Automatic annotation (TrEMBL):
Its EC number is 3.5.1.-. This is Amidohydrolase. Keywords: Hydrolase, Manganese, Metal-binding. InterPro entries: Amidohydrolase (IPR017439), Bact_exopeptidase_dim_dom (IPR036264), Peptidase_M20 (IPR002933), Peptidase_M20_dimer (IPR011650).
Amino acid sequence: MIVKEKVGKWFDHFHTYPEVSWKEVETTAKLAGILTEMGVQNHTFDDVTGVIAEIGEGERIIAVRADIDALWQEVDGIYQANHSCGHDANMSMVLGALSYLQDEKLGSRIRFIFQPAEEKGNGANSMIERGAVDGVSHLFGVHLRPQEEIPFGKVTPAIHHGAAVFLEGKIIGDDAHGARPHQGKNALDPLFAIAQFVKTINFSPYEAYSAKLTKVQAGGESLNIIPGTATFAIDARSQSNSVLNELKVRISEGIQSIAQLYAIEIVLDWSDYTPAAEVSEEAAAIAKEAILETVGEDGFAPAVVTSGSDDFHFYTIHKPELKASMIGIGADLGPGLHHPNMTFNREALDIGARVLASALKKASFLDE
């Protein structure tokens, strides 16, 4: 079976059997089984999902990362695991790149990192803690891109993701009868104040950033009770790590000022921080050469700047000397990433596998 057909077959399997973050047990087993059948040395972990494999020889190590988890979302009225972010495609393209390289002469070892829990924002750290990038000089990633960024047939050498963080808050007051509001502490008034406040945070218009409520829960079935407790969530994003840090400070300070104004307690919990991309010019240049070699000038697209985020960039936060870039594959993907009915042109899978294989091979022959 030719590599392109293998990639399609692998995609069909991963797409049919999605698993959410930290529960990618069968996905891990399938990946390990494929790698073993290919005769590729690999290992899994007793305490976490994910697989690491290697081919080639030598002291130098080049690496590539594929995320393996699916989202949990409503699809046609039913909540289920769903690969609407394309991680099924990412796994398949990385396996395809390995297949293309397996019988090639390489200049170094190439490590394949199949990482869990990207959607939770902390799967990369689990692999870092287990030595995934120890000794690695160059790291590549790959991801399908939505049609509004680049069209099918185009490939970009770098994706400049933004930074993101989530805030979960709880407003703690006292319920009151609808006829006697003075006897309680209304959670809805500070909740509405928070909704208005986040819209007033301003930075330079040359900075890309956003903060918005994404979840609000308050009250029960009784319509004559003013709720004293409410929960909410805020999604905060920026194109730079420094602006996101300042955004967090302003949001926290503003919400606590609202708590004082309404004489109510508000508990805040920041979580799932994902850093902005730190793209290596050298790694991006290698990827550009691979794109030109594989699909030519007509298939080359400039670097993409996106407000989306990816925990791939924790690898460079952990190891600043790591030369990293994520390759973006145009796939006519729509309606968009994370849309429950996302689809794309499957011809993009083989394009991605071949570009990635070329980039990894070129990087393997670089002198330190």
